[in-house]
Amino acid sequence: MSGLWSAFRRMISRSQAANDADEAFHASRLLERCQAFRKLLAANNQALGAMAAIDELAAGTEPFTMNQVRSLCTEVAVRVLQMVQQVEALAPGRYPGLEAAFRAIQQELADVLRREPGPSSEAPLIFDLQGVDCAMASVVGAKSANLGEAGRLGFRTPPGFAATTAAYALFMASDGLAEEIDRRIQAAGAKALDEAHALSSSLQQLVMRSALPESLALELNAACARLAERLETGEALRLAVRSSAVGEDGEAYSFAGQYRSVLNVGLEDVAAAYKEVIASKYGVTAMSYRLARGLRDEDAPMGVMVIHMVDAAAGGVAYTADPATGRCEHVFVHAVFGMPKAVVDGATESDVYRICREPLEIAMSCIGSKKTKLVLARGEGLAYEHSPGDVAGAPCLKPEQALEVARAALALERHFGAPQDVEWAFDREGRLFILQNRPLRMPETPMDYAELEVAQSDILLSDGVTASAGVGVGRPYIVRKQADALRLPKDAVLVVRNALPAWASLLDRASAVVAELGGAAGHLAAVAREMGTPALFGASGAIAALARAEVVTVDADRGVVLSGDRSQLLSRKPRSPRVMVGAPVHDALLRAARLTTPLSLIDPDSPLFDPGYFQSLHDVTRFCHEKAVEAMFAEDDDRRFPQASALRLSYQGKPLQYWVVDLGGGVSPAAPPADKNRSSRLDVEMVACRPFRALWRGMIELPWSGPPALDMRGFASVVAQAASNPDLEPGRSSAMAMRNYFLISDEFMSLQSRFGFHFCTVEALICPVSEENFASFQFKGGAADRGRRVRRARLLADVLEGYCFIAENREDSVVARLEGASVREMENALAMLGYLLIHTRQLDMVMADNARAEAEFKRLRRDIDIILSRNARRAVEETSWKNQGTAGSN
Question: Which among 203, 258, 404, 700 is placed 20 to 30 Å from 880, CA to CA?
C-alpha cells in the first residue's frame, strides 16, 4: 500500500507548497476520508470472504468444528462493525440507527453461538445399574441406560453402577479444567493429524494430572465397596470401567471403539481408570470422530459405567440384521474364544453363524482360524494367549449356545423396536451375559447385486467381507503404524493389516478401507458404516496385492478390488456424502448463517433500504458499502477537492458507468478538472495510471458478444433471482449498475465494481521495484442458482491459477493474488483481469454442468493467450521504436 499513501502525501505536499490553505485543508480531509473508505473496503472484502467460508461449510460435505463456526461468525461480526464505524467517519451522525441495528443482529448471533449449558453438577453422581433404565440416557449415557434396561427385562447382566454426567460436570468444573481444555483447543487450531496428536496428548495428560473432587472420589469408593459386598466372591474383585457418553450407542452416533474401556481393574485403581475414560474423550480418534460427525464438545458429556468383569470362555457380537445389506432375514453371531474385545477390535478371525429367524435355526456356520484369544491377565488388563492348532480351528460355541445368543438378541430387538448390535459373553459356567446393546445402523442405499463384467486380470482382490457397503476409488496407501497415518493423502484407499478402531480417525480422508483382518462386527466397520466409507475386511494378502497399484476401485458391495478407476462400470457411484447434514454443529451453523449470509437489501432506492429492515450482517455490509460510496462521492461543496474529485470516464465520446478519483498523478495534466455539478468527463486516454491502462487494455482487447444464450433451466434460475430484484430488469436505470469507481494514482489502482448480483474488487500497484508490485482480485455472487454460481467461481479460480495467481475458491467467491512480478508481468496480469471482468459477466447463467464449464475454460484460456501474444508483440515493437529513436539521436 506504499504507493497509495505516497500518492496522498504527494498530493498534500503540492497543495502546501502552493501555500493554499483551503486546498491543503481539503486535501487533508480527502486523505482522512480515503483512509476511512479504504478501511471500509478492506473490511467489506474480509467479511465477504468469511461469509463465503460459512456458505462453503453449510454444504455439509467437509467436517468442521464449532470453534470454526464461532471463529468465522466472529470474523464477520468484527469486520461488519469496522464498516459501521467507517461509515460514521465518512458521514458523521447521518445514520443514527445503523449501529443499533447491527448490535441487535450481533446479539442474536451471540445467542446462537453460546455454549449450551452442560449437565448440572448438583444431580446424583452415582446410580446403581439396578435402578437405571433407558429413559435415563441423558443422565448416565446410552450404554449404561441400555444395559440397565436389559437387566430389568430379565437378561443376565454384570452387576455394577453408573457414574453420571453430573459427576463428569463436577470433575470438569474443578480447578477450571473445562476452561483450560477449551483454551488449549482454540489456541491449537489443530488441522493436520500430527497437530491433532500433539493436542490430544496435551489434553489427556491435563485430565490425568487433575485431582478428582473429594466428593466424587468418596462416592466412587463407596459404590465400589457396595459392589464388593454384593458379590461376595471371596476373591479380588475385577471390574470393567467403560465409557458411557451421552450420544454414544445411540441411534444417530455409535462412537464405536472411540473411547477407552479399562478392563480387569482392581478396586484400588477405579478412580485412576475413571480419569482414563474421561481423558479418552480427547483421544485423537474420539476428537476426529466428533469432528467428522459434526458434534460439539458439549454434545458428548461423559458418563462412566463400572461393572463386574466377566471371565469369558467365549464371547462376541450379534447383529439382528445384515448391516451391509439392510436385510433382516437372519441373525449374525460372531464368536471367538475368550473375551469379545477380540471381535470388536478386528484383531483375529472369528466364527460366524448365520441364523434364520423363523424357525430359529442355524442356516450356515463359518469357523475361523482363531490362533489367539484374549483372556484376563494375572495382574490387570487383558493378555493374548496362543491357541493350539486343534483348538484354533474348532467351533467356540455349541449350536444351542449360538441359538441362545440369537434368541436373546431378537428379544432385545423386539423390546427396543429396531435391529440391535449386541455384545455378549459366556462365562466359565456356560451362563450367557449381555454386556452391551445398541441400535444397529442400517445402510441408506441397498447393495448392488448386478453382475459385474470385468476381465479376471483386472480383479486384484476377491475374497473380502463387506464391512461397509459402497464404492470407493483412489490410490492405495498402506498404513502399518501411526507415523504412516500422518501422511495419508486425501481420498486415498486406506490399506491396513488389522481393522483397528484407531484407524477410525482416518475415515474422513479415505475413499475406502481395505483390511487383511477383521469383519463386519468390528468397531471400525461400525464407524465406516456411519460415515459412509466403503470397507472391505478379511481380504487376505491385500497389502501385497495393492502395494504397487496406481489407482484402484474398491467395490465393497461385491467384495472385490479392481485395478484402475472402474466406477463407470458400477451402478453405485463413489460416494459424495454430506457428512455434516443433520449434525449439531451443522444445525448451529445454519442458524448462524441465517443471521450472516443472506442478502435481502438489494435496491438502494427502495424505502426498505434502511437499518430498520436489516435481517443479516450481509444486509449491513450492503448498506454500509452503498452509503460509503454516496459519502465518498458526495456533491456537498464542503467535501470537494478540485484536483481529486470524481470524474466520469468516457470512451470514444460515450459516457461509461465508471468514475475515477485521482489521488495524484493518475490523470494527465491536460485533463479537465471536475466541476461542481459533476458533469465533467474524462476520456480514458487521459488516464495516466499504469495499472488502469493495463486493465483497460484487457477490458477492450477482444469484443464482448453480450450475454450468453440461456438454456431453459438457466433462464428459470435467473428469473427466480430477478423476481425479487428489479435492478436486474433489462433497460432499467439501476443504482447497482452505477457503483463502479476507480481510486488511482500514477502507480496504484483500486477498482470497486458491482454488476447486478456480483461484486468485484481489483487492486494493483505497478512500480519499478518488482518486490512491491502486486495485483489482487476478489469476486463474489451472481444472478443464477448456487450450482451455476459455484461453477463460474471455480472456473475463474482455475483460469487464474493457470497464469501464476494464487487463487482460493469458496462457494461462489474467488480471491486471487499475484505478488513480486516485473512491470511487464504485472501489465499482462492486469490485462487478463480486465478481460475476465468483461467476459465472465452473466456467465454463471449458462454454467449448467461441468461440460459447459470445461468448454468456457478452454475459450477463456484461448482468448487470454491471444491477449498475451498481442501484448508481447507490442512490447517488441515498443522496444524496437525506442532502439530506433536512440540510434537516430546518436
Answer: 700
Whole-number pLDDT of residue 12: 46
Q: Could you tell me the CATH number of the domain that includes residue 254?
A: 3.30.1490.20
Number of residues assigned to the chain: 890
pLDDT class of 239 with cuts at 50, 70, 90: very high
DSSP 378: S
The reported pLDDT for the residue numbered 770 is 85
Helix pair angle (21-58, 66-90), 10° resolution:
160
Q: What percent of the chain has pLDDT over 70?
A: 83
370: three-class secondary structure by DSSP = coil
User: Rg (Cα) of the chain, in Å, rounded?
Assistant: 34
Residues 674 and 709 in one domain: yes
Domain assignment present for residue 421? The answer is yes
Burial (Cβ within 10 Å: 0-12, 13-18, ≥19) of residue 858: exposed
- The CATH number that applies at residue 544 is 3.50.30.10
Are 142 and 205 part of one and the same domain?
Answer: yes
Nearest to 593 by CA among 9, 201, 52: 52
Does residue 180 sit within a domain? yes
Q: How far apart are CA 523 and CA 342, in angstroms?
A: 11
Same domain assignment for residues 432 and 336: yes
Which phi and psi angles does 272 have, rounded to 5°? -65, -40
User: 121-125, 337-341, 409-413, 808-812: which range is least confident on average?
Assistant: 121-125
Residues 541 and 672 in one domain: no
Average pLDDT, whole number, for the chain? 82
User: 358: domain CATH number?
Assistant: 3.30.470.20
Q: How many domains does the chain have?
A: 4
Provide the sign of the torsion angle of the four alpha carbons 46, 292, 178, 122, taken in this order: positive
Q: Which of 406, 439, 472 is the last residue of a domain?
A: 439
Q: Check pLDDT > 70 for residue 47.
A: yes
Give backbone dihedrals phi and psi of 497, rounded to 5 degrees, phi first: -75, -55
Model pLDDT, residue 295:
75
Q: Is 362 exposed, middle or buried (0-12, 13-18, 19+ CB in 10 A)?
A: middle
Among the listed residues 491, 453, 610, 634, the one whose alpha carbon sits nearest the alpha carbon of residue 33: 634
The answer on 461 and 359 residing in a single domain is no
Phi, psi of 807 (to 5 degrees): -120, 140
Strand arrangement of the beta sheet that strand 492-496 belongs to = 465-468, 535-537, 510-515, 492-496, 476-479
Between CA 600 and CA 603 the distance in angstroms is 9
- Report the sign of the C-alpha dihedral through residues 558, 564, 565, 566, in that order: negative
Residue 451 pLDDT level (bands cut at 50, 70, 90): low
**604 closest CA partner among 398, 754, 776, 798:** 754
Per-residue pLDDT, 728: 33
pLDDT digits (tens, 9 = 90+) for 839-884: 887 777 777 777 777 888 898 999 999 999 998 888 887 777 766 6
Say if residue 5's pLDDT is above 60.
Answer: no
Burial profile 697-706: b = 16 or more Cβ within 10 angstroms, e = fewer: bbbebeeeee
Same domain, 666 and 810: yes
In the predicted model, is pLDDT for residue 527 greater than 90? no
Q: Is the domain of 318 the same as that of 303?
A: no
Residue range of the domain that includes 543: 456-565
Does 816 fall in a domain?
A: yes
At residue 635 the predicted structure's pLDDT band, cuts being 50, 70 and 90, is very low
Inter-axis angle of helices 617-632 and 21-58, nearest 10: 160
